[in-house]
Amino acid sequence: MKNDLHIRTNISASSNKEMNWEKVLLKAQENGLERISITDFDTCLFSVIKKIVSPTKFFKGEIIDGMECDVCYNGITFELLAYNFDVDKTFEWSKKTYGTLETRQTKLKDLLLAKLNKTNLTQNKVISFDPKQEFAHNYVYNLINNKNNAKFFAEYEIKTSSDFYRQSTTNQKFPLYINTGAIWPEPSKVIKFIHSVGGIIVLAHPFKYKNKIKVTDLLNFAKENKIDGIECYHPDHTKEEIQQLLKFAKNNKMLVTGGSNFNGTENYNTMGIKNIDAKQKEIFKK
User: Which domains does the chain have, with CATH numbers?
Assistant: First the structure.
């Protein structure tokens, strides 16, 4: 079985803006996927849409309701994946908890620019910012991506706007670090709510945080806070890392999931994870 439980559409700020849900579903069908979940950041809007407009015209397989939740714990940002929840209740909760894409990205942009203006980094010509279209971290990354700042980029191993994002939200020594606690909730609140509406919580890609968060700390946090599963299979995980995560999940009787992190951009443009634990099918059944 070929699954993918971590896919995003253009509803998410970091995704290809041409990649709407119809195109995503068609791509999943073309790639022979049998089970997918669209996990846009901080909203389950697609799950609401598919209750109104049948997706079977585009994709014939199983679609599990999902979303990717940004959380902040002790000043460090990471992500949780939520699945198989009550859609209506979760959609209303997400609007109250996260606000809109525009409000989130505007707050992030303002926090980043406040930090940037306290540094000596050379800024490119100011460009307009559209919170409906632009990922705040990508906007600021483009402001400082020039040869004058090459040493800075090399020092912090920043090659993409994704690298910049991770540094600014997980590395408290980074000059442009921002505490996102004013924007995103504590994980305990997300875990409690999703469980209250019958959902499942999974720790997203534990090895993706640029080594600024100890993986052992994240895994222990997941165990201690009743997180149901670990996203073991992910394109940013090495074979050795996958085996480490699989062992932890097995030893702690946790769900194993996997996803491509597809968002239609150059870095994440391939769908499908093979050989996912067959028990997933039973666990995700209502």
Answer: 2-99+182-283 (3.20.20.140), 102-180 (no CATH)
Give tens-digit pLDDT for 152-178.
999 999 999 989 999 999 999 999 999
Name beta bridge partners: 36.
Answer: 4, 63
Beta strands in the chain (DSSP E): 2-7, 35-38, 62-63, 66-73, 76-83, 200-203, 229-233, 255-258, 273-274
211-242: b or e for each residue (b if 16 or more CB lie within 10 Å)?
A: ebbebeebbebbbeeebbbbbbbbbebeeebb
Quickly tell me which residue has 């707050």 as its tokens: 107
Positive or negative CA dihedral for 209, 210, 212, 218? positive
Beta strands at 62-63 and 35-38: parallel, antiparallel or unpaired: parallel
This prediction has a pTM of 0.92
The sign of the dihedral angle between the CA atoms of 240, 173, 157, 209 is: positive
For 176, the token pair is: 């442009």
Q: Which residues share a beta bridge with 262?
A: 7
Task: Categorise residue 36: left if φ over 0, alpha if ψ from -120 to 50, beta otherwise.
Answer: beta
Rounded Cα distance between 177 and 53, Å, is 41
